[in-house]
Structure formats: C-alpha cells, structure tokens
Specification:
Layout: E1 18-20, E2 26-28, H1 43-60, E3 63-68, H2 75-82, E4 92-98, E5 103-108, H3 118-133, H4 137-152
Parallel strand pairs: 3-4
Antiparallel strand pairs: 1-2, 4-5
Helix pairs in contact: 1-4, 3-4
Pfam families: DUF5130
Protein name: DUF5130 domain-containing protein
Organism: Nocardia vermiculata
Length: 156
C-alpha cells in the first residue's frame, strides 16, 4: 500500500472535452459526429461499474477508484505512479488491472490505511482473479470492490 499527499487531478491538464465532476471523477466526452472505434464496455457494464463504485464509496466513506490499462513491465511501479494522481488519493483505494500483463494491483491512501490494510487489499485481488481468468474484466473489478467494501465496513 502506498500513500501520498499529491493533489487530485489538475483540471487544467485534462484534454478538451474533459472535466472533473463535483464528486471528483474525471468525465469526458467525444465530439458530436465522432464515432468510437471501439467502446471498451457496453452500457450495462458501465452502469454496473458506476453503481458499484458509488455504493461502495457511500457505504464505507472510502473513495474507490479503478484504473484499467497498461501499468508497464513493473506493475507495482506502474500503480505507484498512477495512484497519487487519482481523485482523493489520501482517502481512497485504487484497484488497477493491467490486462495485457494479467496483473491486478491495489493501493490505499494514508488516511484510510488503518481500514484498508494489506489483508483487505489481498481480499480484493483474490475476489477479482476468478472472473479475470475467465476474461470477465468488469465482473472481476466489481467483485473486488464489493468484497473490499464489505471487509472495510462502515466508519465508526
């Protein structure tokens, strides 16, 4: 688990058509008439992911973030580079999946490290693996979030 005091995403560095929402999520659009060459997830998968992240964050008061993409040859170093620039890093969890490397990494911020410890992070990885091995990326991430949120519980 890594911790950092780096700020969340700087809105001035986002590409045209992207913004940081009031919840801290980065939202982006494409220009009217532009067609996505390949949408990575269908509407149901995006809705499932959004609802799962929102519910887990509201229940635990820990910000859940997900990164899906290349983490580089050293996936641990890759997530350590990505984590500090995620929204509310100090009070969040980042679940990162590098599909081409077949790797899952989890990090938690310093403000929640007592509740999101190594055991909870390992539970998330374990929960994701069965679905990920079957090629079910969204199901794997959703399983990780749900298991981790259950283990974290409500704040006291």
């Amino acid at each position: 688990m890594a911790s950092s005091s780096w700020p969340a995403v700087d809105p001035s560095t986002l590409p045209h058509g992207y913004a940081v929402t009031s919840s801290g999520r980065v939202s982006g659009v494409h220009e009217a008439g532009d067609v996505f060459k390949e949408a990575p997830f269908n509407d149901n998968e995006r809705l499932l992911m959004d609802n799962t992240l929102t519910e887990a964050t509201r229940t635990t008061k820990v910000r859940f973030n997900v990164y899906i993409g290349d983490l580089g040859a050293d996936t641990a170093a890759g997530i350590d580079a990505v984590f500090p620039v995620t929204p509310e890093a100090a009070r969040s969890v980042l679940i990162a999946v590098s599909p081409n490397d077949r790797a899952v990494e989890v990090r938690s911020g310093r403000d929640v490290a007592d509740r999101v410890n190594d055991r909870v992070c390992q539970l998330g990885v374990t929960a994701a693996l069965a679905s990920l091995r079957q090629g079910q990326l969204v199901d794997g991430v959703v399983s990780a979030v749900r298991v981790m949120a259950a283990a974290i519980g409500r704040p006291s």
